[in-house]
Design brief:
heterodimer; A: mainly beta; 6-stranded mixed beta sheet; 4-stranded antiparallel beta sheet; B: mainly beta; 7-stranded mixed beta sheet; about 50% strand; globular
Chain lengths: ~110, ~120
C-alpha cells in the first residue's frame, strides 16, 4: 500500500535559519504529493502541492520538488519566521485518487 | 462559503456513552472524508463518501463506528460505547471529484476526550 515517511521532530531553529523537512514515499503509479501545515488548535491547511515528477510546488516562501527517482518531496524554506512554528505533514494522493495518505508529521519550533 | 465546518469543537464523554459529530462540507464538493488524528501522529483515513454513497471504509472503523451522509450534503460520524482509545481529533475534509489534485479542504476538527 501507499506510505509516507517524514523526519521526526521536533525541529528547533532560530529565526532566519534554513529549514528542511525530509519526506519520502512509497506508492504505485504516479501519485500527487502535498505538504499540509497545522497551526496550534487548528485544522490542516494545504501549503503546497506537486502533481507530476519534477514539478516544484511553492507557497509562502516554502518549496518542494517532486523527485520520482528518489521518491522524495522534501520541504524547504530559506529563512524561517516565528510564525512558521507549526506541525508539517507530507501526504500523497494515490493514482486511484481515493484518499490522502499522511506522514507522521514534523513539529517545527522557530525561536526569536 | 465558510469552508468545512465541524461541530462540536470539543466533546468530553464518559466511557460507554455514544457520541455523534457533524461535518458540513463546502457546498459544491461531492466528496467527503473522515480522518482520525491521535496526539503526535498524522491523520489516519477512516472513510469517505461520494455524494451519499460510502465508497470506502478503513479497517480502523470498527463496528462501533458508523458514518452517514444521507442527502449528500452534511455527514455524521457516530461512535457507540466509547472507549478511552477513541480519544482523538476527528477531522472532516471535502473535495470536488474533478479537482482531487488540489487536495482536500479540512475542517478544524472535533476533539474527543473519553474519561
Amino acid at each position: 500500500g501507499n506510505s509516507v515517511t517524514q523526519m521526526e521532530g521536533p525541529v528547533t531553529l532560530s529565526e532566519e535559519a534554513f529549514l528542511t523537512i525530509n519526506c519520502t514515499y512509497t506508492a504505485t503509479g504516479y501519485p500527487s504529493l502535498f505538504w499540509y501545515v497545522q497551526y496550534p488548535g487548528e485544522g490542516l491547511q494545504l501549503l503546497l502541492k506537486a502533481t507530476k515528477a519534477d514539478d516544484k510546488g511553492s507557497n509562502k516562501g516554502f518549496e518542494a520538488t517532486y523527485r520520482k527517482e528518489t521518491t522524495s518531496f522534501h520541504l524547504e524554506k530559506g529563512s524561517v519566521q516565528v510564525s512558521d512554528s507549526a506541525v508539517y505533514f507530507c501526504a500523497l494522493l494515490g493514482a486511484a485518487g481515493n484518499k490522502l495518505t499522511f506522514g507522521g508529521g514534523t513539529r517545527v519550533l522557530v525561536k526569536p | 462559503d465558510t469552508g468545512v465546518s465541524q461541530d462540536p469543537r470539543h466533546k468530553i464523554t464518559k466511557r460507554g456513552q455514544n457520541v455523534t459529530f457533524r461535518c458540513d462540507p463546502i457546498s459544491e464538493h461531492n466528496r467527503l472524508y473522515w480522518y482520525r488524528q491521535t496526539l503526535g501522529q498524522g491523520p489516519e483515513f477512516l472513510t469517505y463518501f461520494q455524494n451519499e454513497a460510502q465508497l470506502e471504509k478503513s479497517r480502523l472503523l470498527s463496528d462501533r463506528f458508523s458514518a452517514e451522509r444521507p442527502k449528500g450534503s452534511f455527514s455524521t460520524l457516530e461512535i457507540q460505547r466509547t472507549e478511552q482509545g477513541d480519544s482523538a481529533m476527528y477531522l472532516c475534509a471535502s473535495s470536488g471529484a474533478g479537482d482531487l489534485n488540489y487536495g482536500y479542504t479540512f475542517g478544524s476538527g472535533t476533539r474527543l476526550t473519553v474519561v
